[in-house]
Design goal:
Elements: E1 8-11, E2 14-24, E3 31-34, E4 38-43, E5 46-51, E6 62-64, E7 67-69, E8 76-78, E9 83-84, E10 95-98, E11 106-116, E12 126-133, E13 136-141, E14 145-149, E15 156-157, E16 162-164, H1 172-177, E17 181-184, H2 194-197, E18 206-209, H3 215-222, E19 228-231, E20 235-239, E21 244-250, E22 258-264, E23 267-273, E24 288-291, H4 309-334, E25 338-341, E26 346-347, H5 354-359, H6 369-374, E27 378-379, E28 387-391, E29 394-399, H7 424-437, E30 444-451, E31 458-465, E32 470-473, H8 480-489, E33 493-500, H9 501-509, H10 515-519, E34 523-528, H11 534-543
Length: 557
């Protein structure tokens, strides 16, 4: 029975705060310049003023020569032409002005900040927040009800590219099965983890986000769950008698990702999960903030062959700092009393990924200690404690989890599809059918090569032209440079993906998102131009999955 049937659904409301900044345009130099809040482009009397948020994942743009660069994925913005150089995306200026049309050199730029309204709950509730593992938190509220988030408890994620760095508690599945509902934030397997979900009762109420492509609902249905409540991003569920409310908030970028705002009496908790600029920065003041923190949760840059090793290491260090900086901005925006870094406890355990494990440096929980102190915020270190008891807005006590450890023996089975031996001819048929059925269209040529574990041996090669839907089987010895030159001559983008054969089979046969391959370090990527082909990755990760994909019967192979 749906847990939320007795909850009232109502619209989210906001209040607005405005501030003004005065700028003297005489202080804006010719060419490109910046201050703390803005980027400027000036050509004589023409002036363009931009904010400093990248359109991709809202990294803070900075000037390097004559272009603005995002530190997260190195998107490059041409301020003159309002276009990203290495991405098919534009950026609108906040203002475009002509100096000759002004009565004064002084202009005012209005900063409008919207903050999400919270409810006027006043009860002081007893409740416990328990860290289970990775992004899985368990909330137990008095003797009323309990719920959990994003359970990844056992096994690997991202086609065996990720493994938990922590042991799960021995009673994890017992606790989860006694929950009144489970929240699933998005379809990445470290949050929607089929193996872990397989241990849960199939009548478990599930709360998830109403993404346009139903990217979580499709996979949850595949896992056997039927009691699924899909929440839009403009509403909240409220139970007035117990003073409990929950709202699902969307990530502020193009990705299908979400977080939740939870109100338990007078206590307010925000879980941003992996989102960037959650709810477009329209967030309330809260008591507890839980957010990802580690960095390194991407195949970029280590799996991309457009960069030297030195360049990759510099990008990784910059990404670490950028993620760290983003969390500090959220701290300042929401003013929490407590901060819990979570959703970052993973490692590349397999020997074949030794290179990834060596160079994929991450932030650690303790890195946030000093900054929490500076922001009058207490760090909840789940490396030291796993139970946090609250009364009202105050942390009463914290203690270690002594329930014992869940013994996970699944590492020995880390090659999911190792036993599936598909003949070359059959595999070509499967690949051709898979891409023929897809409705993706773009001025893009995909050079897809299946490989062994260390990417040194090629097995199959396929050329897919998404502009014409032409699919061609290539000899594995086909010259990459000639194929690349021909593609560019035809004014198309070239994307080469070398991917471990077994993991590609796993993704295609089991209708998994393609980001499992990139985030799981299962491929090596080369692209010309060196741009993020966001439409390709989005489509094959969020649209063309689960019931959208043709079924392949491997029973006779």
């Amino acid at each position: 029975m749906n847990f939320f049937k007795n909850f009232k659904k109502s619209d989210l409301t906001y209040h607005e705060k405005s501030s003004f900044e005065e700028i003297n345009i005489d202080d804006i130099n010719q060419g490109i310049s910046q201050n703390e809040h803005y980027l400027f482009y000036r050509d004589k009397e023409l002036i363009k003023i931009y904010d400093r948020f990248c359109n991709h994942k809202f990294g803070r743009l900075f000037l390097k020569g004559n272009i603005a660069i995002c530190p997260l994925h190195e998107w490059e913005l041409d301020l003159k032409n309002e276009k990203y150089i290495n991405a098919s995306c534009t950026k609108e200026p906040l203002l475009t002005i002509n100096e000759n049309e002004l009565d004064s050199p002084f202009i005012e730029i209005e900063h409008k900040k919207k903050k999400l309204d919270t409810l006027n709950f006043s009860l002081k509730k007893n409740f416990t927040v328990r860290f289970i593992n990775h992004a899985c938190l368990h909330f137990a509220i008095d003797n009323e009800f309990s719920f959990a988030t994003d359970p990844w408890i056992v096994g690997s994620a991202f086609c065996n590219g990720w493994w938990l760095t922590k042991d799960s508690p021995s009673d994890a599945f017992e606790i989860l099965n006694n929950c009144d509902f489970i929240f699933i934030s998005h379809n990445h397997p470290d949050h929607l983890h089929p193996k872990s979900l397989g241990y849960l009762r199939k009548n478990m109420p599930i709360l998830t986000a109403g993404f346009a492509n139903e990217s979580t609902v499709k996979l949850l249905n595949e896992c056997g769950f039927k009691d699924i409540t899909v929440m839009d991003f403009t509403s909240r569920f409220t139970h007035r008698e117990t003073e409990f409310s929950i709202a699902v908030l969307k990530s502020g970028d193009f990705r299908e990702d979400s977080g939740i705002l939870i109100e338990i009496g007078e206590f307010k908790c925000l879980l941003t999960v992996d989102s960037n600029l959650l709810n477009f920065g329209r967030l309330p003041d809260i008591d507890l903030l839980a957010s990802s923190f580690a960095s390194g949760a991407s195949g970029f840059p280590l799996c991309f062959q457009n960069y030297t090793q030195k360049e990759k290491e510099l990008i990784i260090e910059r990404n670490k700092k950028a993620v760290f900086s983003t969390q500090l901005k959220t701290l300042k925006l929401t003013k929490p009393k407590y901060f819990m870094p979570y959703a970052g406890f993973f490692t590349s355990k397999a020997e074949r990924d030794e290179y990834i494990e060596k160079y994929n440096k991450k932030n650690c929980v303790e890195d946030f200690s000093d900054h929490c102190l500076k922001n009058n915020c207490q760090l909840l270190n789940n490396n030291e404690y796993q139970f946090f008891n609250f009364y009202g807005k105050k942390l009463k006590n914290k203690f270690k989890d002594n329930s014992g450890k869940y013994i996970d023996n699944s590492y020995s089975e880390y090659l999911t599809c190792e036993s599936i031996k598909i003949p070359k001819e059959e595999f070509f048929k499967i690949l051709s059918n898979y891409f023929s059925y897809a409705e993706f269209k773009d001025n893009l040529v995909l050079d897809l090569i299946t490989t062994c574990d260390n990417f040194s041996k090629y097995f199959e090669r396929l050329k897919i032209d998404f502009s014409s839907k032409n699919i061609e089987i290539l000899d594995i010895h086909t010259s990459t440079s000639i194929l690349e030159e021909k593609t560019l001559f035809e004014e198309k983008k070239y994307l080469q993906i070398k991917v471990r054969r077994e993991e590609l089979i796993d993704v295609i046969v089991n209708c998994k998102p393609w980001e499992d391959l990139s985030i799981g370090f299962q491929c090596r990527v080369y692209r010309n131009p060196n741009i993020y082909n966001s439409s390709f990755w989005f489509y094959f990760t969020n649209v063309y999955i689960s019931d959208n994909v043709p079924t392949f019967d491997l029973g006779n192979l």
